[in-house]
Each structure stands twice: as structure tokens, then as C-alpha cells.
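Bug: C-alpha cell stream looks shifted between consecutive jobs. Job 1:
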Amino acid sequence: MKIGGLQKLTLIDYPGKLAATVFLFGCNFRCPWCYSSELVLPEKKQPEISEKEVIDFLKERQDLIEGVVICGGEPTINKDLEKFIKKIKKLGFLVKLDTNGSNPKALKELIKIVDYVAMDVKLPKDKYLKVLGIKPDNIDKSIKILKESKIDYEFRTTVVPDILDKKDILKIAKWISGAKKYYLQNFRPEKTLDPKFEKKKPHPDEYLANIKKTISPFFKICKVR
């Protein structure tokens, strides 16, 4: 398990819970607008944190925090992820998994042990191959797994300027229609994989609010973060 960071307290990453966040190295995507380059790109050489250090920290916080968020990068590319999660669960914590949905086989097993899943739907189905060079088949499978499961979950999309517009978000909304929760997140122009994106201006709040109004009927909960 290659761990690249530990946020000792977060009030926003696990809905309704006081949590810690564990950041794992590595990702099978190279989204140019990603702002976690230190986790995604091996050449960044971010200092590694041992699994023991994380577990020891959690043992000291059993009465103070409720959950642990596991994110990346992309957590499901780590072969020891399930074992790591079971160790955390054994300490009595709830576990939230953040994923890009690229590994439906792993996701199907992990939803048996985690308590919450947040899946990024980065693009409409017809744009995955064009923008990221990735076929959307596994993304589609992961969407179906979550929608058909009993686990608490959410889908979310970062609305990146010049990549996604209202028509694109509508396509995504129709793709995941009927999901419990869908969140729109505004783009943050900071330390992106492709420096060009650092100069892009986020959409105005009104733009996202207007999109949310249009797509809300597709979901039980639809909000802008």
C-alpha cells in the first residue's frame, strides 16, 4: 500500500461525519485538469507514509473521528486495498471510498465492506475516449453496480471550462439518471497536471446553479458544491 498523504481531520469529505483522509499514490487516468499531480505522477517523488503510521494514528483517534476517506490518485489500482480497508474497519471506523469507476471488478467486492462510495463521472460517455483515451465500458459497469447496490453512494462531476458545458452535463445526467445523489463541483485552477488549465477561469456560480436546476429532476438529491 503506497500512501502519499494523511489529512488528520476533514469536515467536508465524508458527508455528515468527522473523518480523516488517506491519500494513495498512483492513478490509471491522466486528466489534464487534475490537481493531485503529486499523487498521480511518479516523478513528483512525494514522501511516502507507512501503513503502520496511518493505523497507529487511527488507533489514537478512535473516540474523536467517525470515518476514514480513502482517495488518490485512484485507490482501486492498489492490490492491498481490501486488506487495508479491513484493518481500518476492524478499528471501528466507517470507510468512504473515492474512485474514478475504472475498476468495476474491484468496486463490486469493495462495496461489501465500505460504507460510502463517491464516484467521479468525469465526462459524458461519448467523450471518455476522445478526451482521456479511455473506453467508457468500465465506467458504465461501475455506474450500474452502484445504482443497483444498497450502499450509500454519490456521483460527482467537476465542471471544467472548455471541457464540459451544459449539454455535456445533461448527457451525464441522463446516463446516471435515477441515481441517489449527484453533485456538480466547480473547477479549481491550481497545480493541474497540464499547466494550461491553471490559467482557466472557473464557471460563474450562476452557470452551475442553472445547470443544476435543469438536471435536478433526474435525481433524488442534486446539488452544487
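Job 2, same session, no restart:
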Amino acid sequence: MRPFDIYSYQPPDWKEGEYPYRAVIVSHRERAGRKDMVEVVICSTQRASRPPSEIEVLLDEADGLDWPTLCRCDLIYAARREDLKQVRGTVCRERQRQIATTIIAAHGWAAVL
């Protein structure tokens, strides 16, 4: 597992028959590579039908996804490694920066830097 890899995510409350989320790993490479819990941001399961809001980044086929997908950056989840099932792709370099910048902005962290 590496930072900015995209996985199918089946959280503990996931029900059989539901479409798995897409989750982007945002943990440091040391955590992503070795720990049982990693940090992720969640992407929508439906095709994006609107532009991203100020707390979202639009990912698409260039990132390994099947269609344009909105990635919400205002909430970071702790995910168990075992709940991340299939690698779907890796976020391209340009959008890695967008995700990092959007996470900082969505949490108001720039004000304390």
C-alpha cells in the first residue's frame, strides 16, 4: 500500500450488494506500508455530474477510475487495511497536490501554518 493509491473500500458497516466506495490513501508512506490502520479520503460511488465543490477534487480515468469521481477531502477516515480490497489506480501527480491542498483548506489548517 502506498500514499495516493486508490482502493475499493468496504467499511465494517458495508452491506453485501452495496457498491464499495473508492478510497484514496493519504497516510505517510511509512504508515501506508506497514500499519494495520491507514488514513483515507472517500470518493463518491456515482459518476460525477457536477463540478467539484471547494472541499472536493475530481478524479477520473487518468487516476485509474472508470469515470469522473468526486473525492471528498473534508473528512479523513481511519480504515483497516483488511477493508481495502482491490487497487483501482493511483492518483496522478497533479491531483495528488490538489488533494493535499484541498485537505489543508477544508480543515482550515492554512491559518495555523
